[in-house]
Write a structure and sequence with these properties.
Blueprint (H helix, E strand, L loop, with lengths): L11 H9 L7 H11 L4 E4 L6 H12 L9 E4 L3 H14 L8 E4 L5 H7 L6 E4 L1 H9 L10 E4 L2 H6 L3 H8 L7 E6 L4 H10 L4 E4 L9 E7 L6 H12 L4 E4 L3 H12 L5 E4 L5 H12 L5 E4 L14 E4 L6 H8 L9 E7 L4 H11 L5 E2 L16 E6 L9 H12 L6 E6 L4 E6 H13 L9 E3 L1
Helix pairs in contact: 2-3, 3-4, 6-8, 13-14, 15-16
Length: 459
């Protein structure tokens, strides 16, 4: 087969990482873009969210990386902090078998002074958001003279969020000789103009740009002017009983109102919006991803880039602006060959939004009668996991194996009682089965991890 990773002339360390990650066959965008990236071409690639774009540019920049040099060689710009952190994590996995690779994430939400000091460690790869990267460039603490590869990820989202001016300024700091890669879910005229301003004979690539109908079943409910949307939301949850659901709202206030409504019905729910500090965002997303949280209520800040495995349901509390944004929202479910459900609320004045979606997909939308929904049972779901906090992280050279060993040894738990482990620079989150979480905390508080005591508690 021509789409196997092993057919590419990648470093042995990267091939080893791919085997560990069980990546064998390339996705369509990887098969189209990776050979060109490895040949040094500039590309502008259009592909839907969740299509494997990160591994495509990640393998390319890691293949070009000279890890014997302590120079900044690759810069990846992302529209949101969440996506930047996720991209960094994915790059770390791909580089896990390569020695001496230093990466740094530069985003708002963390003190500039700390990030300036972190630049003294001479990272070879930086992943960041436009605002913070530009600020550090203008202060001349971030220098791009040695840059080999520049990546714009989710470029259309950056323009939608108003980063055009910041991007134009960042481009003036780039060295003239470099490879430039642009990835975008859509390809409007302003993306073409952006590409022309900094890319050299970029090769245009395109794969499927919307979610396959066989993977996601989406249903629309008309909401009358005086109808209680929260009541309709609860009916959907109680009837379909998803173990997790992502609910999209238009405003920060709506995320708070919906979260309060669901929390009042004993549902494990949190909201995600731009008012949260970075540490809070990380904690909320970690809990939702590791199954310590049943419902996440978010603004469109979460619509792109989040890789949440096995998410069964997405609910649009409001219709998003544009068919593309709708596709990106519901694309959080039905990932990696899984099936998913998507429910959307709309009013009669938004008929045109349904028409846009129909035109994009080439098929009619399914409209259901909300009156047919009923409270079959009380929606009472306790998450299977609970997240504990450990006051040590990468700076303490903690590894997942160290934490697993301590939990099994100190707390007398089985490996099957332990879920996802997220090790941050200064702390770690560990998912433990609900029934065993308190036991794990009590034992670890009295015991040690790698012969050192750490503070342990519920996140």
């Amino acid at each position: 087969m021509i789409n196997l990773f092993e057919t590419l002339n990648l470093k042995p360390e990267l091939q080893q990482s791919l085997k560990i990650l069980k990546f064998t066959s390339m996705t369509p965008i990887q098969a189209k873009s990776l050979p060109l990236i490895l040949q040094g071409h500039d590309i502008i690639a259009q592909a839907k969210t969740g299509s494997g774009k990160t591994a495509a540019f990640g393998l390319g920049l890691l293949q070009n990386l000279d890890n014997s040099l302590q120079d900044l060689q690759a810069l990846v710009l992302c529209p949101t902090r969440e996506l930047a952190e996720q991209v960094t994590q994915e790059l770390r996995k791909l580089a896990s078998q390569m020695p001496n690779v230093k990466m740094l994430t530069l985003c708002g939400g963390s003190p500039e002074a700390i990030q300036e000091k972190a630049l003294d460690t001479k990272p070879q790869i930086i992943v960041g958001t436009p605002g913070r990267v530009l600020k550090l460039l203008s202060k001349e603490v971030l220098i791009l003279d040695s840059l080999k590869v520049f990546v714009l990820d989710e470029a259309d989202r950056m323009l939608d969020m108003g980063f055009t001016e910041e991007l134009e300024q960042i481009l003036t700091y780039l060295p003239p000789k470099r490879q430039s890669l642009l990835f975008s879910a859509t390809y409007p005229d302003d993306i073409k103009s952006l590409s022309a301003s900094f890319q050299n004979k970029a090769i245009e690539l395109q794969t499927d740009t919307f979610v396959e109908s066989t993977k996601i079943v989406d249903v629309f409910f008309e909401v009358r002017p005086n109808q209680d949307k929260n009541n309709l939301l609860y009916k959907i949850l109680s009837q379909y009983k998803p173990d997790r659901a992502l609910i999209f709202c238009r405003t920060k206030k709506e995320t708070l109102d919906v979260t309060e409504f669901l929390a009042g019905r004993d549902i494990a729910v949190r909201c995600l919006n731009s008012d949260l500090e970075q540490k809070e965002r990380t904690e909320v997303l970690t809990k939702f991803t590791n199954r310590s949280l049943s419902i996440l209520v978010a603004t469109d800040i979460a619509a792109r880039g989040l890789d949440i495995k096995d998410l069964p349901v997405v609910i649009n509390y409001n219709m998003p602006a544009g068919a593309d944004n709708y596709i990106h929202r519901i694309g959080r479910t039905g990932r990696a060959a899984q099936t998913g459900l998507a429910f959307s609320f709309y009013n009669l004045e938004e008929d045109f939004r349904l028409k846009e979606i129909e035109d994009l997909r080439g098929k009619p939308c399914t409209i259901a009668n909300a009156e047919q929904l009923s409270y079959t049972e009380k929606y009472d779901l306790t998450p299977p996991m609970k997240t504990i906090y450990i006051s040590g992280g990468k700076k303490d050279k903690l590894r997942p194996g160290d934490i697993v060993g301590a939990i099994i040894g100190e707390a007398d738990l089985e490996a099957s009682d332990i879920g996802d482990i997220n090790i941050m620079p200064e702390f770690s989150f560990v998912a433990i089965k609900q029934a065993k979480a308190k036991q794990a905390i009590e034992s670890l508080s009295q015991g040690r991890i790698k012969k050192k005591k750490y503070k342990v508690g519920f996140a």
